[in-house]
User: Fold this.
Amino acid sequence: MVTRPPTEDIDESRIEVGPPKRRAVGVPAVLHALQIARDQMGLARSAQTLLRVNQKNGFDCPGCAWPEEDRRHAAEFCENGAKAVAEEATLRRVGADFFREHAVAELRAHDDYWLGQQGRLTEPVLLEEGATHYRPVSWDEALDEVAGALRALPDANEAVFYTSGRASNEAAFVYQLLVRGFGTNNLPDCSNMCHESSGSALTETLGIGKGTVSIDDIHDADLIIVAGQNPGTNHPRMLGALEKAVHRGASVIAVNPLPEAGLIRFDNPQTPRGVLLGGTPIAGDLVQIRLGGDQALFQAIGKHLLERHADTGDVVDEEFVGRHTSGFAEYARAMAAVEWDGLERATGLTEDRMRGIAERVRGSGKTIVCWAMGLTQHRHSVATLRDVVNVLLLQGNIGRPGAGVCPVRGHSNVQGDRTMGIYEKPAEGFLRALDEEFAFTAPRAHGFDTVGAIRAMRDGDVGVFFALGGNFVSATPDTGVVEQAMARVGLTVHVSTKLNRSHVVTGRRALILPTLGRTDRDARRGGDQRVTVEDSMGAVHASRGRLDPPADDLPSEVAILARLAARLFRGRENAPRADWEALEGDYGEIRARIARVVPGFDRFEERIEKGRTFFLPNGPRDARRFDTASGRAMFTANALEYPRIPAGRVLLQTLRSHDQYNTTIYGKDDRYRGIRGGRRVVLVHPDDIEAAGVVDGEIVDMVSEWERPDGSVEERRAERFRVVAYDTPRRNAAAYYPETNVLVPLDSTADVSGTPTSKAVVVRLETRG
Ligand SMILES: Nc1nc2c(c(=O)[nH]1)N[C@H]1C(S)=C(S)[C@@H](COP(=O)(O)OP(=O)(O)OC[C@H]3O[C@@H](n4cnc5c(=O)[nH]c(N)nc54)[C@H](O)[C@@H]3O)O[C@H]1N2
Ligand SMILES: Nc1nc2c(c(=O)[nH]1)N[C@H]1C(S)=C(S)[C@@H](COP(=O)(O)OP(=O)(O)OC[C@H]3O[C@@H](n4cnc5c(=O)[nH]c(N)nc54)[C@H](O)[C@@H]3O)O[C@H]1N2
Ligand SMILES: [Mo]
Assistant:
């Protein structure tokens, strides 16, 4: 029943291009997901597994971080959730035989699709210096190797500990304790490349690095602006919530350079209406903005609201602004000074169009702004998000039902990992609580974020690189630099479920430590364990896997970390005091510790019983309490910024296709955008195709140009992309990540947050000779 993994890489010469879809989900989505599920798991296991996704007492979907609705459908069906589950619950296996058969050099030549499709990892393997193949090792040998390499470092800060956002709260908590016990805050995570800009802007202006809305607020809003996000592919269940809001009378404005399918029309497979009657139009209005133009749009909205307020006196919520905010006068002055021609140039929209959008904001009593990577991965992302907050503050849209900020998170527990202390710049209060609970002194100096870690590796300053999940080599910017940086590390260690590029582009020695995923039964000494996760809206709930794990005695992430900690801290002074075996045996013990260290988790165990969910405290949402420097929500005055594109060049955004989960490639199609059979495409406006002197369908190279501070220009090249004429603004192009990461310069990062500017890369298209 289960089909064999592919034997060939994607044949990019077989790409077919058709018209993009105007609607998302519906019956084709269900069929496509079931096909993938059957190929990976067979029929019986597919049914058993898919019925448990996001059910009370089931497992949390390893797909996205969108929250569950309170009344769940029998199968909370989501095409891409099903694909994420199938990818993990697959019956294909990568064991010792596989590594005996394939040399590392051979594996390196394969694409991410081929690697990921081989199956679940089942045995720990070691690559010795100079060896051609990984060889099996025992768990004792593997963990001794890691502990030995760490202990041999002259300075704890020469180790880097990366985290991807799938780790459970329990694993993340034990991990950060291990890392701080070892003596460093070098805890970069995927969030550094993802919503870090949101965290930076919101902490500064609202005093909390998270969103301020719940799922009920989405249902109750009058107006929802969805900016820089493609929910039809990346958060399909969000479409259900938007549909509900629309049925209750809300309107949705999509702000996006691309006319993404789900934003236009949604066929809900959960309702007969969706399947038979043609679905719900979601966004009444698509604002086709230029890449990086969002700050200008929100300034335009703010400027217009303030002008109207000067006329009518009834636009700004003066009571809220007076009682709860500071900085209003400076903001109002800045918006009075900003000029329409700059706003028009930045957005590609006319003044009239922007005033029209602002009028809709004015007419809404309850507004929510949702966003994702289209707003966070630009140089001026933090300023952009400050201006989003400004607009919401004007009308008192923070801390009232149906209104607020909604950064839509990516990985299913990326928000929880940060709450658990996965952060290179931990707050003093958190460290003090940790010190007290575990009777040691955690390091205070800030550690490396993702880009900082790459620079340190490149410079030869890192002896051990350890990753709890993820695919560092493919996910990070500047692939060429990262591959060389990795090679300088003494030992690279990956705790992983599936094979990926980071296992074959390694340090001088390398270990792969296979582990359990969300869907697997986790049997420990104290019985079958559950873990907990926090969704995008700060709700915490338990997740329990039920499937037979891919191999006997496969340890969980917690088990691997606890065993490593026991080895590392044996006989060491200033080590955290903990009974590591007890923590591994019963995760309730870990939750008891979390309850004492992390605010908001008191009575943790009791509050997750029987599938219950609880909300973490959220100052702005709960009580209009703002934990900022001034104790008030902050208006900020920000200079207008937007990308400048040199003549003859286009600005490239790097995004996700419909058949991938970050660096995991499920398949070769991007159904909604009309691309089939391959991934090396670049979507370009027809006039820009002509201006570049190429033709639609031609295979070109993309060359990125990065101007260093001294004015010199660095070039990077990505070869063989098929040009596809597409409905995108002039001078704005799009292509898939991770194939294009080779073009993103390491030093091109967002101000304040340090996030790579993956949505704004200056490139030229070159005909191949
Ligand atoms: N199936 C699936 N689900 C996923 C993921 C996945 O890969 N596959 N990844 C998960 C993760 S980690 C994350 S972070 C999220 C990512 O979710 P998204 O942020 O939706 O992912 P991207 O594909 O990067 O899409 C960015 C969107 O923003 C638009 N955009 C780009 N630049 C701009 C801009 O300057 N302004 C505006 N207004 N729009 C812009 C693009 O056209 C695109 O629609 O999804 C999560 N869920
Ligand atoms: N150019 C460009 N680059 C980007 C982005 C972009 O839009 N454009 N997006 C950025 C964003 S938003 C993000 S979040 C990052 C993603 O960066 P990462 O989180 O590092 O990458 P993923 O591809 O999600 O990681 C996939 C791997 O995680 C492992 N894995 C999966 N589940 C589990 C588990 O339960 N436990 C363990 N231990 N391992 C597991 C598997 O081995 C799998 O191969 O990429 C960033 N990079
Ligand atoms: Mo992400």
The radius of gyration is 25 Å. Residues 63-64, 80, 194, 227-230, 233-235, 255-258, 260, 289, 291-292, 294, 372-374, 410-411, 653, 655-656, 660-662, 759 surround MGD (ligand 1) (CB under 6 Å). The chain is about 35% helix and 15% strand.
